[in-house]
Structures are given as C-alpha cells and as structure tokens.
Amino acid sequence: MPEPLLHLEGVHTHIGQYHILQGVDLTVPAGGLTMLLGRNGAGKTTTLRSIMGLWQPSQGKVVFDGAEIGGMATADIARQGISYVPENMGLFSNLTVQENMVLAARKGPMDEARLDWIFQLFPALRKFWRLPAGNLSGGQKQMLAIARAIAEPRRLLLVDEPTKGLAPSIVEALIEAFLDLKRSETTILLVEQNFHMACAVGDSVAVMDDGRVVHGGAMAELAEDEALQQRLLGLSLDTES
C-alpha cells in the first residue's frame, strides 16, 4: 500500500448548531484515486470542505504530506498543492473559457505543454476557448471546472460529484479524463454517486454514514460484493447505474 498523502484522524466539524462530522478517520494513498461514497447527508461534502479549510474542523487532525493543515486558511492550504472542484463548479460564467483558465493559473502564464495536455483531456475546451463559460453545456462546464483545478500541477485534487446530472456519454468522457489524470500520478479524492464511475476509476474507497467513515478498502472488492453494497449504501448497485 502506498504511503498516505492525506490523513484525517478523529475529525469533527460543526456547522452552526449541527454536528456534521463525528470523528472521521480517512486515509488517501499517494498517487491513486480514492472514492468517497455514502448516502446523501452522510458528510462527504463536509469532509472535502473541512480538508480545504472552507469549514474549520472543531476537533481532530488533517495531515497532508506529514504536516498538519487543519485550521489553516483555505488560500494557504491551496498553496500546499491542493485543488478543490466543488459541486457547483465555481466558474465565472461571464468570462470566456480562456479567461477562466488564466485566472486559475495563479503563478503566471500557463505552460503551453500543460495546456496542450489539458486540451487532450478535454478537447471541447479548445473548441470553445473564446466563448463565455456560461454558454457551455453542463458537461463542458464540469470539464472546465476540473481543468481550472489542474491549470497548474497539483499534488491532491478534491472533486465533488462531477457526473451529477450528466448524460452517459459525458460520464464516459470524464471517466477517460480521470484515468488519464491517474496516469499523471495526481492523487485524487472523489465524491461520486455514479457507481459505474466509481468502479471504473477508483483504486480505494471509503464509505461514510452519519458523519463517520464506516468502511475502507479496495474499490474492486466493494464492486464485487453486492451484499456489502446493500449494507453500506442501502442500494442494490450495479456497474450500469
């Protein structure tokens, strides 16, 4: 098993009066793709936001590459090499695709080789380079959101439900893109409801319920065990769903 790049130990997060995360223990191995699964309301998005410092943990440790980042400001966490793609994608709809990408490259002009690589991942972005982001389809917007997150090299990519509401053909395109990202040795923590996507790209998996991680292991093992899927996720899942 690769060394963990990210480790959460006993993380609690409160949002107002609500105690959302109730002792999350989570390990994300370096260089792989970890799926974070669970029912709606289990605490998956809160976990990503707590890692990114958008919501501050009230207790526990968030350790990235051996250093504690819990309690740091979001901008400082991003400087450690962590990117976050929220469910709402966080795009500037009135700006062009190009302008969105320029803003994401905070260290200066984008490296042309890296931009060519991103265009290979998401060819539609080259086609619509000078169009406003608001004119893109839902799938194209999701591609732009991910492209923004990797405009510069990142050590860890956090992605929240990238396939939500997308057509199956777009889901397949995103699967190929994430497989390519894995080959680039980018470590990814991915929240997803599409079990076909999870099976296709996941190396390891953590399943959340009621603010805790209740299962961890290989994604392939969960994919093969329908009884375990039923117990953990409350659904009879298959790879076509």
From TrEMBL:
It comes from the Bacteria. Pfam families: ABC_tran (PF00005). GO terms for molecular function: ATP binding. Keywords: Amino-acid transport, ATP-binding, Nucleotide-binding, Transport. SUPFAM superfamilies: P-loop containing nucleoside triphosphate hydrolases (SSF52540). Residues 6-235 form the ABC transporter domain. Belongs to the ABC transporter superfamily. PANTHER family: ABC TRANSPORTER ATP-BINDING PROTEIN, HIGH-AFFINITY BRANCHED-CHAIN AMINO ACID TRANSPORT ATP-BINDING PROTEIN LIVF. This is ABC transporter ATP-binding protein.
